[in-house]
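Module 6 notes. Inverse folding takes a fixed backbone as the condition and produces residue identities as the prediction. Think of it as a translation problem where the source language is geometry and the target language is the twenty amino acids. Below is one complete input and output pair. Work through it position by position during the lab.
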């Protein structure tokens, strides 16, 4: 597909084109230009695309077209024609929001279903017509068990972020869903990565699929200014406060590795007079929604999130991301920083890196095929001891890509996303240190250290088993 492709040339129904125009989109993104025609002709699809590429509209728009232009067979309350499975509540909410946005001039109905919230409103909604159901697997299975949803009328099945669903241990749930949806259907599978497990799933699920692939995030992250500060873990909270003030950051998404770490950081920021909120799997859905809304509205300057809780969060023009700790899975770094620099805007991502995280840094730099610029912190004086005694090192998971992912074996469902793995990073606005010209791939450049000497080693000792839950 070329850049000349227009939405009109994709032959979408007029009410959909109108909704697209209302959304302000002028040109289909590459994934949309490739996927929409293939979905419109009714074939199965295997798509390699990450959040931020416009993939949601890539499947939502043609699905709306398909459903609105052909009659439902045996329509009944609680019997969806399209089922979209997603790994997390946030993503579920956002996908259904997209369905509503793009389908606003159509008479199709949609519903979102996830755990961690009262089931009664969902039961009520299922008593009406539901054309498009967006669900996380766990809660969907609950409804299947209670026979409150009927999947026998599913014409189109979508697995969105299939890799993440497998990572979160949903494979058995997905298989249970597959056992009850009609064999005769259209299936679309979206995944950012293609492990053997995903390939096996796709082989068993898709028939002669069309394949589309768009540039991976780790090639599109070029527009994001990436930098790092070397800093002992115990000084990170103070350093972040310093950076927020020094740069007058107004909207920063900070990733922490643990839920506990997210809470402590948000508390510290608030204590220092900086409005902040934490979102992670231990927070109720309403608290998470509220925190996210406050952050989007600008009432909360700093949103501290764990990886899974932040998954799918879509904030237009988010200028700054901070990795408070580096993720141990390098792809997560790409996902994290992909929250900024979206849809053509530039963004900045800063990582705070302790000595113990150098291995992760190396893996990340290998993946993104570039060095992350070491930047010297200006004017930061670590406290003599203030916060140090209560400091906790991030857990030290096994190094490298083979490391188990948080939540993988923890029986996590969508009710408990946000495992103990989380970190956050933020972009530099300080002056690059001399090391900028020739950054060391190992991150050991002395000039990137905060200027104060490190506190005694004892203050940095690990507390084994503290995973911040
Ligand atoms: P997604 O990858 O689906 O999470 O979408 C990322 C962002 O791109 C969302 O904020 C969408 O609203 C936006 N978007 C999707 N399609 C387009 C388009 N054709 N033009 C501009 N922005 C878009």
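Target side of the pair, the amino acids:
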């Amino acid at each position: 597909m070329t850049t000349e492709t227009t939405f009109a040339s994709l032959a979408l129904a007029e009410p959909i084109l109108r909704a697209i125009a209302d959304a302000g989109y002028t040109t289909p993104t590459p994934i949309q230009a490739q996927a929409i025609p293939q979905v419109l002709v009714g074939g199965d699809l295997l798509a390699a695309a990450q959040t931020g590429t416009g993939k949601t509209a890539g499947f939502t728009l043609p699905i709306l077209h398909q459903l609105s232009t052909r009659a439902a067979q045996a329509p009944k309350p609680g019997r969806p024609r399209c089922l979209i499975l997603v790994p997390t509540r946030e993503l579920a909410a956002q996908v259904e929001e997209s369905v509503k946005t793009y389908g606003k001039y159509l008479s199709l109905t949609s519903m979102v279903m996830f755990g961690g919230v009262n089931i009664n409103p969902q039961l009520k909604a299922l008593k009406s017509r539901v054309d498009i159901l967006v669900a996380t697997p766990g809660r969907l299975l609950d409804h299947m068990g209670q026979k409150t949803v009927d999947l026998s009328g599913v014409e189109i099945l979508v697995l969105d972020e299939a890799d993440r669903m497998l990572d979160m241990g949903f494979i058995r749930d997905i298989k249970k869903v597959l056992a009850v949806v009609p064999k005769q259907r259209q299936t679309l599978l979206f995944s950012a990565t293609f492990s053997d497990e995903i390939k096996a799933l796709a082989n068993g699920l898709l028939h002669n699929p069309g394949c589309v692939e768009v540039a991976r995030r780790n090639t599109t992250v070029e527009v994001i200014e990436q930098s790092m500060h070397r800093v002992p873990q115990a000084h990170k909270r103070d350093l972040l406060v310093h950076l927020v003030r020094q740069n007058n950051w107004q909207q920063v998404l900070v990733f922490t590795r643990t839920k506990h770490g997210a809470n402590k950081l948000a508390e510290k920021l608030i204590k220092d007079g900086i409005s902040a909120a934490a979102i992670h799997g231990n927070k109720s859905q309403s608290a998470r929604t509220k925190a996210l809304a406050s952050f989007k509205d600008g009432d909360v300057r700093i949103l501290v999130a764990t990886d899974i809780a932040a998954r799918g969060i879509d904030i237009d023009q988010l200028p700054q991301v901070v990795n408070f700790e580096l993720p141990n899975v390098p792809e997560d770094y790409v996902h994290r920083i992909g929250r900024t620099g979206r849809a053509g805007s530039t963004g900045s991502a800063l990582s705070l890196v302790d000595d113990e995280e150098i291995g992760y840094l190396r893996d990340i730099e290998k993946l993104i095929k570039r060095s992350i610029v070491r930047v010297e912190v200006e004017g930061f004086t670590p406290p003599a001891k203030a916060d140090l005694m209560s400091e906790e090192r991030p857990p030290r998971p096994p190094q490298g890509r083979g490391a188990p992912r948080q939540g993988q074996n923890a029986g996590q469902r969508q009710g408990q996303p946000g495992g103990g793995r989380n970190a956050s990073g933020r972009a530099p606005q300080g002056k690059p240190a001399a090391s900028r010209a020739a950054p060391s791939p190992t991150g050991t450049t002395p000039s990137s250290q905060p200027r104060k000497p490190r506190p005694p080693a004892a203050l940095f000792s690990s507390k084994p088993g503290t995973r911040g839950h």
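Reference fact for the lab report: The longest helix spans residues 55-69.
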